[in-house]
Amino acid sequence: MMRPILISDPTLRDGSHAIHHRLTVEQISAYTRMAEEASIPIVEVGHGNGLGASSLQLGESLVSDKQMLEVCREHLKRTKLGIHVIPGFATIKKDLNNAIDIGVDVIRVASHCTEADVTQRHIEHCRTREREVYGVLMMSHMAPASILIAEAKKMQSYGAQGIIIMDSAGAYLPEEVKEKMKALVSSLDIPVGFHAHNNLGMAIANSVAAIEEGATILDATMKGFGAGAGNAQLEVLIAVLQLTGYETGIDLYRLLDASDVAEQNFITVPTISSSSIVSGMAGVFSGFAKPVERIAKQYNLDPKDIYFELGKRKVVAGQEDLILEVAVSLSQLR
Length: 334
Hints:
Layout: E1 3-4, E2 6-10, H1 11-18, H2 25-37, E3 42-45, H3 65-75, E4 80-85, H4 92-102, E5 106-112, H5 120-128, E6 132-138, H6 145-158, E7 163-166, H7 174-187, E8 192-195, H8 203-212, E9 217-219, H9 234-243, E10 246-247, H10 252-265, H11 274-282, H12 289-298, H13 303-312, H14 321-332
Parallel strand pairs: 1-10, 2-3, 2-9, 3-4, 4-5, 5-6, 6-7, 7-8, 8-9
């Protein structure tokens, strides 16, 4: 009997990082139609950092959250509409309630891997509004399994119906994924999932390692379109799962056709650059790729030096201001 795996596709969210949040209404509309035809279970949409994150500091979205969600809602019937929510960027009263009123089905409430406390109000509110809600622990490579379990249990107690562990820096190797997944799956009463990045070329291998230890939810994007060196490539992942005895409900033929169309229209296929490799080695948030490239050029620095320094300082998502601080410090040392 084939084992079911729930696939969530953040192409229209994580991929937004790769193009400075410049997705157009036409691109969003076309992609959601193709996702529906390929029977992708969940499509996540929004600014790369999630609902309410469009700003001068993080990059302004070309299309507002409201318009993105309305366009997706129009086209998604069987495919569920998902959003990524980081408390602090997204308020309950303004952002979250508006998204729920538009018809969001799945809400992922995220925090840094040691700060689950900040998700309590958002998770509890989503449950009162009768939405499917998951807790997300970002930059999970920075905490040992025991800490991840403690933080995940907090989210479970708030009402989260599943926990997603993000490899936000693309820093994991398969053995580390196995160790943490095994610990989480055996300690929680709710499903566990994994979100991979490909900075070290391990996104598919790490995703497979996760399900071998009991994960039942995987994230993947079309052509790997995402921050840094991109995510686990959706078409490859579905093919591998099909070959190894897992059922996703996704029509592989339609998915392959859709991936070609998406590449022709808006997806920039990510590559593993020198900077991406260093980013993974240093454990730096993949979403920093574009600002690091820009600031390194501005100060005539090697982006690799900036990544290693950010890694030493254990900088996390949301601390984008420190990229500039590091660049200034390095330039003064020359």
